[in-house]
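During data preparation, a discrete fold description was generated, and the record follows.
___
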Amino acid sequence: MKKLVNVPAYLLSLIYLVFGSNYFFHFLAMPPMSGDAGAFAGLLYTTGFLAVVKVLEIVIAVLLIVPAARALAALLIAPISINILLFELLIAHQPGIGILLVVLNALIIYTNREKYFSIVRSTNIGAL
């Protein structure tokens, strides 16, 4: 049972490693985007913003593999997962892998919830 807890972290890490690396090495063919999604993605690409995000994805994906860093990595990758889902829902108008990313991320955060208790206690959020 203890080994099954690691599956979401390994799967999320694999997804981010593959797609983050694909940005730099182009080993998977990506379909062209059109309309608002294409314009948005093009802007991210030409400004270099997407390159920074892809580097973060790769670094955090490696951290997800390390059990001692997994709780921190799950918090760091959460905004990227949510932004991918929001892009799919609000700009591309077709949900895709973003749903899986958010679900896996939520599972990892939930399984590591005891590591976040000190944050809640120290900020007095628990008193709300």
